[in-house]
Automatic annotation (TrEMBL), chain A:
SMART domains: AAA. GO terms for molecular function: ABC-type ferric iron transporter activity; ATP binding; ATP hydrolysis activity. One of its GO terms (cellular component) is membrane. It comes from Maricaulis maris. It holds the Pfam family ABC_tran. This is Iron(III) transport system ATP-binding protein. Gene3D superfamilies: P-loop containing nucleotide triphosphate hydrolases (3.40.50.300). Keywords: ATP-binding, Cell membrane, Ion transport, Iron, Iron transport, Membrane, Nucleotide-binding, Transport. InterPro entries: AAA+_ATPase, ABC_SmlMolc_Importer, ABC_transporter-like_ATP-bd, ABC_transporter-like_CS, ABC_transpr_FbpC, Mo/tungstate-bd_C_term_dom, P-loop_NTPase.
TrEMBL record, chain B:
This is Iron(III) transport system permease protein. It comes from Maricaulis maris. GO terms for cellular component: plasma membrane. Belongs to the binding-protein-dependent transport system permease family. It holds the Pfam family BPD_transp_1. GO terms for biological process: transmembrane transport.
Length: 345, 540
């Protein structure tokens, strides 16, 4: 997938909070040098736990975490967080409220000239003029930048960011996202960003890791993962998707919109046909099999909900569109946005 | 293998040691009450109590009820009103008054009572000025009034913070539904603050019932009077314990009522986003009225009584023994405060571990707060004399002598009783302070390479120092003011300021009582200012 060397590798990480609920149920993940990995999953999927386990803030009950040749976690080892070289940006930033921005950034530094180095780090974040300000005197965006500067200042081997943009409003979020990615790239850091926002994950990531039920279910470059999800769950994590259950007959899966190519699957094997809303192509046809039940504008495109005897689905169609509620339409599928995956697994 | 839940919570964990200390705190706080209950229920029935039940007990109960009701009514009115003014309006002096209004807590109610009775007695200055119209402040209503004037800050503090934290939404919703400002306040803001007000009132009632100096000086025979008489007059530990038990039952009832209120509070506070209401800007006229409303209780509870005592002190020769008494008071208060703050902090850390034993220990320690000082003293005597009786045979066998009266006759017994009563007061401030050290702050410090020692020194302590100090100072002030437990437990000829003030006052030598009475609030004022400012800074 990538030729950059592996910096951090996690194998079979397990952690349970209650006997009946595993937060991590055997998660595997590799982080590659200088690359930004986005960890995407619904809430409760274990992504924050995984992040905290990498930082050493959670103990693993099984599995291992290694930085290069150094073992951070295995059956016998748990390296304390303060002994790892990890920078962490917390969801609430966790700035020390009784210290100035500068003192916060200098906290992780040692040796002579640490104040100068902290100031340089703050200046790189364009916050040199706020060095003497206390956290409560900074805006949300500034707090986030101080937290990132603080995490980067000791030049950690890995930087972990836990939902770093969730506390910010939408407009600021996009701006800060770009900034954060630029900062991480400039520092050449290996980074892991946890998010539950698919759009955000794809925007920041060199590599995407999908997490569900305490496991990593798919990794790869964002566009590749988006185009070829390995399961219905993976597809749903990355955006709206229609799922049609079918059985394979002679290399094809039958759908209400015609057969879909399913070569590589055995005859009679149950599969799920994953259809992105933009795969549906609607055309007005008085004899069409489907009826438009709802039409909504969503800016650059429209969503059309349509129904037939077989069910009801949602299409994303380019705006403007002459198709109105109550119209009858014919529906075809664009195979580029259709994938067939096995369901028995 | 299910992991212990406390891994989730905090990352500076010293579970073993802090839980041990929390259990110690619980033992110190709960043991005297349990001893009282044991003695009361197992001892033989003495004639004194039977006699008492037929004669004085109904009076004690009725007087206690009247005093507590007047104290609660007065403190509730003053505390709620001022709390709302400070939290929801803007007028000249508001920011300063926000903490100054807490200071009357530094004045013991009996000190206010000495001064007010002296001012208002027949032939006193106030009657002379008003041509005999000014009523003499004494009896149940007089005592209740004194308590209201110096204890209202409990209600004020809790009401102020609740009003300040209330979301404006409910109030605004009421306004859009057609309620005027007053109706909206009455039907939304006030009910939402009710649990806080109830908690403050519970403290006021308990302090009133625990008091001895005020009610004995103003002639309001409450249960505490009966208790002290049973002990010092009739010398019966069993009877004192039985009366104590009555007080404890009342305390449990009062705090039970308060808890019932609070249980509903959760649903009130959890709802909705947090958008505090803008302050009501008061014009010049209304602002002046608000200022007057704030200054009146301050004047009546603090300035006038302390002024009178200053005048009396200046016109009387200083009584001997004051220096020694001051030293004793300060030493006891300081030792108790330091130990209480340490126990409170340890309990707060233990609570962070989220273990059942820590929670149980904190609850048990909290029990002590509901126990009047005299009861704690009776419990300590019961415990220590029990221990003495246990050790005596062994000691005799070893040395052939009677076991030395080490336990009951030293300051140690006093500190034990103070701790059992006040250590609980140090737990919740420490808990509040420690809540500022969120798990992610700990995590941030760790990922930045800070060792445990450095985390405690540079992150924890700076964030909790003010809270822990103010918990200690609060205990310091309480011990300084404490009278009944000191009376029961003090070693022979060991006087404190409260003791000599009380002794002179009960001999009608108020001139000599003035200076020691004055010294208590004066010494307490500085720590109280620190506490008041700390509590007010927290609120904003």
């Amino acid at each position: 997938m990538t030729d950059a060397p592996t910096v951090l590798s996690i194998r079979g990480a397990e952690r349970r909070y209650r006997a009946d609920h595993a937060a991590l149920a055997g998660a595997d993940l590799d982080l590659h040098a200088g690359r930004i990995t986005a960890l995407l999953g619904p809430s409760g999927s274990g992504k924050s736990t995984l992040l905290r386990a990498i930082a050493g803030l959670e103990r693993l009950e099984a599995g291992s975490i290694c930085l290069g040749d150094t073992i951070w976690n295995d059956a016998a080892t748990h390296v304390a967080p303060e002994a790892r070289r990890v920078g962490m940006v917390f969801q609430d930033y966790a700035l020390f409220p009784h210290m100035t921005a500068l003192a916060n950034v200098a906290f992780g530094l040692t040796g002579p000239g640490k104040t100068a180095r902290a100031l340089a780090q703050l200046e790189a974040a364009e916050l040199g003029h706020k060095a003497k300000a206390y956290p409560h005197e900074l805006s949300g965006g500034e707090q986030q930048r101080v937290a990132l500067a603080r995490a980067l200042a000791p030049q950690p081997a890995v930087v972990l960011l836990d939902e770093p943009f969730s506390g910010l409003d939408r407009r600021l979020r996009g701006e800060l996202r770009e900034r954060t990615v630029d900062t991480l790239r400039a520092a050449g850091t290996t980074a892991l960003i946890v998010t539950h926002d698919a759009e955000e994950a794809m925007a920041v990531a060199d590599e995407l890791a999908l997490m569900d039920g305490g496991r990593i279910i798919q990794t790869g470059p964002p566009d590749e993962v988006w185009m070829s999800p390995v399961s219905a769950t993976a597809a749903k994590l990355l955006g709206d998707v229609e799922i049609i259950e079918a059985r394979v007959t002679s290399g094809q899966a039958e759908t209400p919109f015609g057969p879909v190519d399913a070569h590589g699957f055995e005859d009679g094997q149950p599969v799920a046909v994953l259809i992105r809303p933009r795969a549906f192509t609607l055309s007005l046809d008085a004899e069409g099999a489907c009826t438009i039940t709802r039409r909504r504008s969503a800016g650059p495109h429209l969503t059309h909900r349509f129904a037939s005897d077989a069910g009801e689905w949602t299409a994303q169609t380019p705006a403007p569109s002459p198709i109105r509620e109550g119209d009858r339409v014919n529906v075809e599928l664009d195979p580029a946005y259709v994938r067939v995956v096995a369901t028995s697994a | 293998m299910p992991a212990p839940a406390h891994f989730l919570r905090s990352h500076v964990r010293l579970p073993g040691r802090t839980i041990g200390l929390a259990v110690l705190a619980a033992a110190i706080c709960a043991a005297p009450v349990l001893a009282v209950a044991w003695i009361a229920l197992s001892g033989e029935t003495g004639d004194y109590l039977q006699h008492l039940a037929g004669t004085r007990l109904p009076t004690y109960l009725a007087t206690s009820a009247i005093v507590a009701l007047i104290a609660a009514g007065g403190a509730g009115l003053i505390g709620t009103g001022l709390g709302w003014l400070i939290a929801r309006t803007e007028f000249v002096g508001r920011r300063t008054l926000a903490w100054v209004l807490i200071l009357p807590l530094a004045v013991p109610a009996y000190v206010a009572a000495y001064a007010w009775l002296d001012l208002s007695h027949a032939g006193g200055p106030l009657q002379a000025m008003t041509g005999g119209l000014f009523p003499t402040i004494r009896g149940s209503w007089g005592a209740g009034l004194m308590f209201a004037l110096v204890l209202y800050p409990y209600v004020f503090l809790l009401a102020r913070d609740t009003f300040a934290g209330q979301s404006a939404d409910a109030y605004h919703a009421a306004r859009t539904l057609g309620a005027g400002p007053l109706t909206a306040f009455w039907r939304t803001s006030l009910p939402m603050a009710r649990p806080a007000i109830a908690a403050g009132l519970a403290l006021v009632v308990m302090e009133s019932l625990a008091d001895y100096g005020t009610v004995s000086h103003l002639g309001a025979p409450t249960l505490s009077i009966g208790l002290i008489r049973a002990w010092s007059g009739a010398g019966s530990l069993v009877d004192a314990a039985r009366l104590s038990l009555v007080l404890v039952v009342i305390a449990i009832f009062v705090f039970g009522l308060e808890r019932a209120q609070r249980r509903r509070a959760r649903s009130v506070n959890a709802a909705g986003r947090h958008k505090p209401a803008p302050r009501l800007q008061l014009g010049a006229g209304h602002g002046l009225l608000a200022l007057l409303a704030c200054l009146t209780p301050l004047a009546l509870g603090m300035v006038v009584p302390l002024g009178r005592l200053v005048w009396l002190a200046l016109h009387t020769d200083t009584a001997p023994g004051l220096a020694a008494a001051s030293l004793h008071s300060l030493t006891l208060a300081l030792i108790t405060a330091v130990i209480a703050a340490a126990l409170g902090l340890a309990t707060a850390y233990a609570l962070r571990s989220r273990t059942a034993i820590a929670t149980l220990a904190a609850r048990a320690a909290g029990l002590g707060y509901a126990v009047p000082g005299a009861v704690a003293a009776v419990g300590v005597i019961a415990l220590l004399s029990g221990t003495q009786a246990l050790l005596d045979p062994a000691w005799r066998a070893l040395t052939g002598e009677v076991f030395p009266i080490l336990l009951t006759a030293t300051g140690g017994a006093l500190v034990f009783a103070y701790l059992s009563r006040f250590a609980a007061a140090a737990i919740s401030p420490a808990e509040t302070a420690l809540a500022r050290v969120t798990p992610s702050l700990d995590g941030a410090a760790r990922t930045l390479g800070a060792s445990r020692g450095r985390r405690v020194r540079t992150v924890h302590w700076p964030l909790i120092a003010a809270g822990v100090t103010s918990a200690g100072l609060l205990v310091f002030v309480e011990v300084l003011k404490e009278l009944p437990a000191t009376m029961i437990l003090r070693p022979f000829n060991y006087d404190t300021l409260a003791i000599i003030a009380h002794n002179f006052a009960s001999d009608e030598r108020l001139g000599e009582a003035a200076l020691p009475s004055l010294l208590i609030p004066l010494v307490a004022l500085l720590p109280m200012i620190f506490v008041a400012r700390y509590l007010s800074r927290q609120a904003r």
